[in-house]
Amino acid sequence: MPFASCFGPAYEHTFIMDADMRKRKIRDKVPMTYVTSEPYIGHLGLGGVGDSKGFLESDLRSHHVNWITNAKVIKVEPGKMFIEQYDDDGHLIKQHELEFKYSMMLPAFKGVEPVAKVEGLCNPRGFVFVDSHQRNPIYKNIYSAGVCIAIPPVETTAVPTGAPKTGYMIESMVTAIVHNIADELAGRELSTNATWNAICLADMGDTGAAFVALPQIPPRNVAWFKKGKWVHMAKIAFEKYFIRKMKKGTSEPIYEKYILKMLGITKLK
């Protein structure tokens, strides 16, 4: 049962599957392997956050999940996945053939073709270039936020591993864009930059992991990573809170704004 990814969703999926099979008393019948382009477990596309490497390696080991890092998935056939593994210098060191009855793949993201073809707007993968104000340097009337923007990898890795765009980070981008568009319409100089701060709650079935990265891209002012059953409960509570917030159409309740501000977590610089 291989899971291929370099970001949080596949870690969550792996641990949730493990927890579900343990509840069903069938975990002993199912070998699991985590396959990732990351140079090490817990890299997360961010160069690690706090001791994410130690935490996640320990959890995978204690849950009997094997892993392959610095990996490229070459092809997938019915019931079999073909993987190349590289050392940190980019030299091929091993080829794997993993048999499976179930797998979850998270392929590399790519921009949409009509946008990607606009010269000067996007990088070769189709992601939109933006400046510190979330505006394209060439096309001044185009602002961009979220997964579709071009962010350089935080560091060079043997297998390309891009930086993820997390929810709160994207909210900070959108907030900056709104302020900058208002300035542009009023004839003022653009003055607002997003913090790109990151908060993440990862559900791991019967436990969880939480991290805060301020900002998400290093070097950081704060890099904090913790795990425990409390994160699992916090994730459930947050999902209910977030859905209610969206149904009411309130993007940022006042108490949320000030609680996060007390913790030093803000959307704008």
Textual characterization of the structure:
This protein has 269 residues and is α/β, with parallel strands linked by helices. Helices cover 29% and strands 20% of the residues. The protein contains six helices and ten strands; from the N terminus they run βαβαβββββααβββαα. The strands form three sheets. A four-stranded parallel beta sheet has the order 3-2-1-7. Strands 4-5-6 form a three-stranded antiparallel beta sheet, with no helix packed on it. β4 (71-77) and β5 (80-86) form a beta hairpin. It is globular, with a radius of gyration of 20 Å. The model is unreliable at 1-6 (pLDDT under 50).
Radius of gyration: 20 Å
The count of helical stretches stands at 6
- Look at the helices and sheets and give the structural class: alpha/beta
Question: What does the main sheet amount to?
Answer: 4 strands, parallel
Strand order of the largest sheet: 3-2-1-7
Unreliably modeled segments:
1-6
- Average pLDDT for all residues: 90
Oligomeric grouping of the chains:
single chain
Order of helices and strands: EHEHEEEEEHHEEEHH
Give the overall silhouette: globular
Number of strands: 10
The N- to C-terminal Cα distance equals 44 Å
Strand content: 15-25%
Helicity range: 25-40%
Set down the secondary structure blueprint.
Blueprint: E1 2-4, H1 8-23, E2 32-35, H2 52-62, E3 65-68, E4 71-77, E5 80-86, E6 92-99, E7 104-105, H3 113-116, H4 167-185, E8 198-203, E9 208-214, E10 222-227, H5 229-248, H6 254-262
Parallel strand pairs: 1-2, 1-7, 2-3
Antiparallel strand pairs: 4-5, 5-6, 8-9, 9-10
